[in-house]
Specification:
Structural class: alpha/beta
Oligomer: single chain
Order of helices and strands: EEEHEEEEEEEEEHHEHEHEEHEHEHEHE
Protein name: L-idonate 5-dehydrogenase
CATH architecture of the largest domain: Alpha-Beta Complex
Family: Belongs to the zinc-containing alcohol dehydrogenase family.
Helix content: 10-25%
Pfam families: ADH_N (PF08240), ADH_zinc_N (PF00107)
Number of domains: 2
Radius of gyration: 20 Å
Number of strands: 20
Keywords: Metal-binding, Oxidoreductase, Zinc
Cofactor: Zn(2+)
Largest sheet: 7 strands, mixed
Strand content: 25-35%
CATH superfamily of the largest domain: Medium-chain alcohol dehydrogenases, catalytic domain
CATH class of the largest domain: Alpha Beta
Distance between the termini: 33 Å
Length: 362
């Protein structure tokens, strides 16, 4: 089988690997679609993602979906041919958390994640024609949800977890700063959870167009000199840019809530944080998700449309080009998808253009 493998900084290849065989308690997934994430880009560009350093070749990808091709011994409740996506996290150890963290498995100290070099040996991801997956990590897709959209259940779960960090959004005005794929999904998740009005801000007009298509009522183009709104009660910071923190804190209403979704640097950086104190802002972190992937699948079943997020589609053999487009701010890309089989079970709409470096219409 073919797999998208990063061998080092700037070195990604489509390698031939043996087709895996599911062990006891596992299924073999025939992977159809994968979505490129920032961590995939980081491993390709830098040979690292955060503190996880590439020591060996790694199959990329933690956003993927396909169809069950084979069941391992002892697997029940699933069937060959069933469409499914994957919860990419599996805690290591006894799974016991302190009482104060009960249920928050995303904060477990040691977690293997698909497509991650955090441990040695690394945990290969799903950008391959086949992948064995523990049955407990399989999430069947609801009827009517195609595998291309199912591949986006993972980032949608990240957005739903972030939105869920605020107890009640119904009827409230929300600001989302940073409209990359996660920020635009936060827009959709806030709308799905009943936000009254959603304002989205970014430096890129192409990202703002995606945010509008995902449900933003109003957009602010910061590159054109437009300012963030004032006194917003609930703000989601999805850019991860330290320079954005000062203006975002100033945009947050006195006594308001700021949810940090975008990953901030792990090194010292200058940032203007004074308003955090003087405005008594509640600043909350949001990391991955717990079981919100199930909520994401219900949202997709209920009609939450993630297709405006998809701007480019590439076949597996052009994975290097796909990563380059996803990493290039000038490309106008949002979510770049890899078609990991020659013929997915259901065609995407619109069908893949012959030159996928041209954006699909939002």
């Amino acid at each position: 089988m073919r797999a998208v493998v990063v061998h080092g900084a700037g070195d990604v290849r489509v390698d031939e690997r043996a087709r895996p065989v599911p062990g006891a308690g596992e299924v073999l997934l025939s992977v159809e679609w994968g979505g490129i994430c920032g961590s995939d880009i980081a491993y390709w560009k830098k040979g690292a993602s955060g503190t996880a350093l590439l020591a060996h070749p790694l199959v990329l990808g933690h956003e993927f979906a396909g169809r069950i091709a084979e069941l391992g011994e002892g697997v029940t409740g699933l069937s060959v041919g069933q469409a499914a996506t994957v919860h990419p996290a599996r805690p290591l150890g006894d799974g016991v958390l302190p009482e104060r963290l009960a249920g928050r498995t995303n904060l477990y100290p040691r977690v293997r994640y698909f497509g991650s070099a955090a441990f040695d040996p690394h945990t290969d991801g799903g950008f391959s024609e086949y992948r064995t997956v523990h049955a407990t990590q399989i999430r069947p897709l609801p009827d009517g949800v195609p595998t291309e959209q199912g591949a986006l259940a993972e980032p949608l779960a990240v957005a739903l977890h972030a939105v869920g960090r605020v107890p009640e959004l119904r009827g409230r005005t929300v600001l989302v700063n940073g409209c990359g794929p996660i920020g635009s999904l936060v827009v959709a998740a806030a709308r799905y959870r009943g936000a009254g009005r959603v304002v989205a801000a970014d430096l890129a007009s192409s990202s703002l167009a995606v945010a509008r298509a995902m449900g933003a009522d109003e957009t602010r183009d910061l590159s054109a000199g437009e300012k963030l709104p004032e006194d917003v009660e609930v703000v989601f910071e999805a850019s991860g840019a330290p320079a954005a923190l000062g203006p975002v804190l100033r945009a947050t209403a006195r006594g308001g809530t700021l949810v940090q979704v975008g990953n901030l640097p792990g090194t010292a950086v200058p940032a203007a944080l004074g308003d955090l104190v003087t405005r008594e802002i509640t600043w909350i972190g949001s990391y991955r998700f717990v079981e919100e992937i199930d909520d994401a699948l219900r949202a997709l079943r209920d009609g939450l449309d993630v297709t405006p997020l998809i701007t480019h589609r590439f076949p597996l053999e052009r994975a290097g080009e796909a990563l380059a487009v996803a990493a290039d701010p000038a490309s106008g890309s949002s979510k770049v998808m890899l078609r990991l089989t020659a013929e997915p079970s259901e065609p995407s709409e619109p069908s893949e253009p012959s030159e996928p470096s041209e954006p699909a219409e939002a």
